[in-house]
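Supplementary Note 3. Input sequence used for the single-chain structure prediction.
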Amino acid sequence: MTEPREIAPHAAEVVPGLWTWSISNSHIGGHTSTSHALLTREGCVLIDPVRLDEAAMAALPRPTAILLTARCHQRAAWRYRRQFRAEVWLPEDATGADEAPDHTYADGQTLPGGLRAFRTPGPEWPHYSFLYETDPGVVFCSDLVSSDADGLHLIDPALHEDPTTTRASLESLLDLRFGVLCLAHGAPVTDDPARALRDLLAREG
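The predicted structure, written as discrete structure tokens, is reproduced below.
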């Protein structure tokens, strides 16, 4: 099973209606794995959820859907499907999941909550990010970059199927309009995230 054993103690509100929580994931050498909950007009969606403390989860809106950016981010999705009867969405070309998803999706498809899926290959081909266009605009970026106290960093290219394509996927984010960048590994960026991405790309040449 791909669910990490660690449990995040609390969730933090990033902007109204958007929460984040993280663990030090023993499955990936103790590196940070980050998850999000987004309250939309259609209900609350979980994105790549790791397990959250029961009381902290109960304080959030009850989730109605679970969206996975990639097979490697199944995390606690199946636990929360059973607990909340929330349907799980997985890329249509992802294989070998622990359990069968309720739905699959493809590039350009609109998902529960009004999020739009767009393919961001490089880490692997069945790898997606999500765009929530409602103000302030949120991009949920999967394994292209990470963040820590020093800012944004490229994920180790040795972990990616095609690092050159990873860079192209990262550059494609700059074509989108968004004010918040949420990551699968690290804290969200709310202070001019497009500029932070441009600075990262310039630094990395």
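The radius of gyration is 15 Å. The mean pLDDT is 95.
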